[in-house]
Design a protein that fits this description.
The protein is an alpha+beta fold and 250 residues long. The protein has 2 domains: 1-156, no CATH class; 163-232, no CATH class. It has 7 helices and 6 strands, in the order βαβββαββααααα. The protein has helices at 60-63, 130-136, 163-183, 193-199, 214-229, 234-242, 245-248; strands at residues 23-24, 102-104, 107-114, 117-122, 138-139, 142-145. The longest helix has 21 residues, at 163-183. The chain is globular and about 70 Å long.
Length: 250
């Protein structure tokens, strides 16, 4: 595979950091503390499965939001309609292949498919092919990182647009925390009741009265919180990471 000897500073997309701030893989960089997700900006030691050691790495939680150019789920193994027929009882291992490029909140990314999985990396040069991506994003044997900042530019996410579900997500987080404190005996169920009302949660009729069995009642509430989370759009989670809202409420 051909690689460059120097960083191409002329063709970086406008959303990338200035050329002088682009990281080029070095032993002086601590991958666990100095690197961030190229989409949400979460540090490696806080991100879920950030593939450090790759150019412009994307964390697993951002990768889960990836779509194809036509807005469908990215294919893996074989394109839709091209899966081969297999005999009953035969275990078929699909090839290490899949959709490229993919898009996360409007950001173009390229996946490297290998060993039955993939690594997702953000594009800093608006490449046309995977081969172009590999060429422009490697300097010799070193990776580059052109989005290593807390809030990388170009991510199409709006704190204002998702304000209502963000607030509901925060209420649910607060309820979950209170339930845990009830389990530990730190607070009482009286602290939980107003939070349930604020979130508009409906506790199932078979739940015991809170005054009769506070801990069992709290477990029913925890179940309702988990169900309510399913209705919160996945973009909300990206907002919380991108704007650091989780950190603000700890």
């Amino acid at each position: 595979m051909d690689t460059r000897d120097t960083l191409d500073t002329d063709n970086l997309i406008p959303e990338a950091v200035p050329p002088s701030e682009v990281l080029v893989g070095s032993e002086s960089v601590d991958k666990e503390t100095d690197l961030r997700c190229a989409v949400c900006g979460t540090p490696a030691d806080e991100a879920v499965s950030l593939p450090t050691g790759y150019s412009n790495p994307v964390c697993q939680r951002c990768d889960e939001l990836a779509i194809s150019a036509d807005g469908t789920n990215p294919w893996e193994g074989h394109p839709p309609g091209q899966w081969p027929e297999t005999e009953d009882g035969v275990i078929y291992s699909p090839p290490d292949a899949g959709e490229n490029p993919v898009f996360i909140a409007g950001v173009k990314c390229w996946r490297r498919y290998r060993f039955g999985g993939w690594v997702t990396r953000r594009d800093a040069y608006d490449c046309e092919t995977l081969e172009d991506f590999q060429y422009y994003h490697r300097i010799g044997r070193d990776w580059i990182h052109a989005f290593n900042v807390p809030q990388p530019d170009g991510v199409m996410i709006s704190n204002e647009k998702w304000d209502v579900p963000i607030q509901q997500r925060q209420r649910l987080d607060d309820i979950e925390k209170t339930v845990e404190q009830i389990r530990e005996g730190i607070v009482t169920v009286d602290d939980l009741i107003p939070k349930i009302a604020a979130a508009g949660l409906t506790v199932r009729s078979e739940a015991p009265a809170p005054e009769d069995d506070p801990e069992e009642f709290a477990e029913f509430v925890a179940y309702e919180v988990e169900q309510e989370r399913h209705d919160i759009p996945s973009q909300v989670d990206l907002c919380l990471r991108y704007y650091g809202i989780d950190d603000d409420n700890e």
